[in-house]
Design goal:
Its cofactor is FAD. One of its GO terms (biological process) is 2-oxoglutarate metabolic process. The chain has 13 helices and 22 strands. With 465 residues, it is an alpha/beta fold. The strands form five sheets. Strands 1, 2, 3, 4, 5, 6 and 17 form a seven-stranded mixed beta sheet that branches. The chain has a five-stranded parallel beta sheet with strand order 8-15-9-10-11. It has a five-stranded antiparallel beta sheet with strand order 18-19-22-21-20, with helices on both faces. The radius of gyration is 24 Å and the shape is globular. The structure holds flavin-adenine dinucleotide.
């Protein structure tokens, strides 16, 4: 059919950005449809955050059981049945994907399958196998996300794979080369290293996890040595040659050519926004940045005023919680509310071992802004709960303004760093001081006490002047 339907809000893409925006817009009283060409939940639920964290949890459990003797448990012959691991991972995904379906249904958002294409500033056409209906809208929210960057020298096929392939291998590879030492490569590389793969990491800059401070990333590097992971930084991957048994990667480091042969190569060198292709943005003359992101104002509005864009297709860190945040803002903005985005407090988390996280300013960043900085740093090895968990690696580093006492930022390396960072995000959002954190009663014995202890260290330094 060629039916046409009038609707308040059309959302394109049902990833974290899209499904959140759709539910929110519906709650604000609009009639809403969402269109998705693949699976509800987008990258995050199907081939991103969730499956990677499921595998990380399994690898962590395996490692803990293998070393349970330290805690007085004898667990002999701990084995990984990877086909069952994959079943577990898939069960986690389906629970969450069906949750998204319920969320949309509960908010009376209609879901349509197919690929959306703009035909005007007020109309999209949806292509699927049966039909190509058109939808007229007052407002549209584009949330088409991103995909892995494919290098010409490492096309995704056979033994060369993106993160998507690495999440659904049917067995633990004997060996794996990871090109790109960003968070996705490090998380997945470490998972397979824990499962017993011989892992080699090739990273272009002079450190893994570029963008994080060295005192955090060096703990991850140290841990990788435990699994005999070979890490080459300042290295350039040049090409690959596949046979039916393996793949050989050529790379250069320090002026020297090297080769490494492995079962698979995982290429994680960044992601590209889905603004090209058949979406039809050129027809609308929508403004894009030179890197292909959609240009938006601080409410998420594009250069076409009734169309908004959120998530990985707009600039900034490609993270699900950034997509959620922009989704809420855009849904409120198109409802006439004065909401705007403010990225001061976006937490960055890497789910490696140890986990690392950061929110607000680092010491280096605060100093670069000319601020008078005070730092309180406190080790996990002095925390009772961490010791009882046999997880004493890492520290909490709290950054404050020495003149005003305001909390400026926090960096954490250690177990549960991903969860611990939330408190300091709230502190910064609320304009809390180091003293506020110190005066908050934290339960004992908990990892939560680490932020309190770091605040006390910083306050102590402030008093000494
Ligand atoms: P997406 O999730 O990419 O969803 C876009 C959707 O739009 C897709 O379902 C797509 O099929 C659909 N679509 C595209 N074009 C069309 C069209 N024309 N018509 C209809 N539908 C269309 N982030 C975190 O915060 N924490 C993590 O731990 C984390 N781990 C990650 C691990 C991996 C391996 C990867 C790859 C990513 C990870 N991310 C993580 C990033 C996170 O997945 C993304 O930031 C997030 O999914 C972006 O959400 P989005 O809504 O912008 O787009």
């Amino acid at each position: 059919g060629d039916a046409s339907l009038d609707i308040d809000v059309v959302v394109i893409g049902a990833g974290p950005g899209g499904y959140t925006a759709a539910a929110k817009a519906a709650q604000l009283g609009h009639s809403v449809i969402i269109v998705e060409k693949e699976e509800l939940g987008g990258v995050c639920l199907n081939v991103g955050c969730i499956p990677s964290k499921a595998l990380i949890s399994v690898a962590h459990t395996y490692e803990t059981m293998s070393h349970a003797a330290d805690m007085g448990i004898s667990a002999n012959d701990v084995k990984v049945e990877f086909a069952k691991v994959q079943e577990y991972k898939n069960s986690v995904i389906s629970k969450l994907v069906s949750g998204v379906g319920s969320l949309l249904k509960g908010n009376k958002v209609q879901v349509f399958r197919g690929e959306a294409m703009f035909i005007s500033e007020n109309e999209v056409r949806l292509f699927n196998e049966q039909e190509s209906p058109r939808y007229r809208f007052k407002h549209c929210i584009i949330a088409t996300g991103s995909r892995p960057i494919e290098l010409k020298t490492f096309p995704f096929s056979g033994r060369i794979m993106s993160s998507t392939g690495a999440l659904s291998l049917s067995e633990v590879p004997k060996s794996l080369v990871v090109i790109g030492g960003g968070y996705i490569g490090m998380e997945l590389g470490q998972v397979y290293a824990k499962f017993g793969s011989k892992v080699t990491i090739i990273e272009g800059s002079d450190t893994i996890l570029p963008g994080f401070e060295k005192d955090l990333t060096q703990l991850v590097s140290k841990n990788l040595q435990k699994y005999e992971v070979d890490v080459f930084t300042g290295a350039k991957a040049e090409g690959a040659e596949q046979t039916d048994k393996d793949v050989t990667v050529t790379f250069s480091v320090g002026g020297e050519q090297k080769k490494v042969t492995a079962d698979y190569v995982l290429v994680t060198v960044g992601r590209r926004p889905n603004t090209d292709g058949d979406l039809g943005l050129d027809l609308l003359n929508m403004k894009l940045t030179d890197r292909g992101y959609i240009e938006v104002d601080n409410q998420g509005r594009t250069s076409v005023p009734n169309i908004y864009a959120i998530g990985d297709i707009v600039a900034g860190p490609a993270l699900a919680h950034k997509a959620y945040y922009e989704a809420r803002t855009a849904a409120e903005a198109l409802s006439g509310m004065p909401s705007i985005v403010d990225y001061k407090c976006i937490p960055l988390v890497v789910f490696t071992d140890p986990e690392i996280s950061s929110v607000g300013l680092s010491e280096t960043e605060a100093k670069a802004k000319g601020m008078n900085v005070v730092v309180g740093k406190y080790p996990f090895s002095a925390n009772g709960r961490a010791i009882s968990m046999n997880a004493t690696e890492g520290f909490v580093k709290l950054v404050g303004d020495k003149d005003t006492g305001l909390v400026l930022g926090c960096q954490i390396a250690g177990i549960e760093a991903s969860n611990l960072i939330a408190e300091i995000g709230l502190a910064i959002e609320m304009g809390a001081t180091l003293e506020d954190v110190y005066l908050t009663i934290h339960a004992h014995p908990t990892l939560g006490e680490l932020t309190y202890d770091a605040a006390e260290m910083a306050l102590h330094k402030m008093k000494k002047k």
